[in-house]
Amino acid sequence: MATAGKVIKCQAAVAWEPNVPMVIEEIEVAPPQKNEIRIKVIATGVCHSDLYHLFEGKHKDGFPAVLGHEGAGVVESVGPGVTEFKPGDKVIPLFVSQCKECRFCKSPKTNLCEKSWSTERYAQMSNTDTRFSCRGKPVLQFMGTSTFSEYTVLNQIAVAKIHDDAPLNRVCLLGCGISTGYGAAINTAKVEPGSVCAVFGMGAVGLAAVMGCKNAGASRIIAVDINEQKFEKAKVFGATDFVNPKAHKKPINEVLTDMTNGGVDYSLECVGNVAVMRSALESCVKGWGVSVLVGWTDLHDFSARPIQLIAGKTWKGSLFGGFKGKDSIPKLVLDYMAGRIKLEEFVTHTVSLEQINDAIHQPKSMTCISLLFVL
Description:
Structural class: alpha/beta
Distance between the termini: 19 Å
Largest sheet: 7 strands, mixed
Helix content: 10-25%
Mean pLDDT: 92
Number of helices: 11
Order of helices and strands: EEEHEEEHEEEEHHEHEHEHEHEHEHEHE
Shape: globular
């Protein structure tokens, strides 16, 4: 391409500081260096983690930054040493890299990678090394990806090559939310056929967890949310029961225990709220119940009575659904194309990047599930 080896000027939504609206700016995107790929972003979703960094985490050393980590695009150019990718390839950026060389990548027990951005700057949610600049200042690449930009640059260990026929304005959702919820059910919880599950939070991640429970063969899937308007959508993904905690005088864990003869086999917390995490654990049956923390937060400690675990329950967490990205995301794309998983049904709003500040609050609305930006 004519732009290969040159600095590209393009539009991006820059978060200059926390808790302040993003600004559509012209940024400079440097050419890819050794083992790097420059990608033209075609579509990107808004995920809770983007809003968390801007409005909740607010770490001062994590700004200025270009947010976004749930995208898909086309390779524009590659740097020296890149052999796996070529210009024109369809790809999905990965916020959890897979170098295939470190002890974590070589272990089947985890999808972490020692070469990830999170190894040293977990709280800031970005590396200091960046290919972005604006107004003469470096701009950080959020979670190593920054898909709220027309172009971005990533190391090849953080990119998954996908099928040439994949619709980028749908499979971009596999870059985070859908993979996270779906994998939490099938990989982390390891939901078994005939089991009873409860999923807390009916956003995109929670609905994907419901879909995972259904595909794993759960016989009963209880959707838990204070927004009853989302229950019809949950039914589409496989939910069989619906509970609004505010509609009951008892704590939600007692409600679920009464409904299920002592508790559910699996619970998945997809909200990112430590109080809900405890409720999800306490909703599990003693002896073998498994509760998975899926919702992203790092602001508060969480707690539970020791007897919950002593009595045989398991409490565990899930990052990116336990998927090793380079290996698994291309397979999930094929699953979508074959009709084995849903993506179309998640999309409720599509807008342009220029509308970002008006649109980013939509995921918290009564009707929004997934919000897409088309660049």
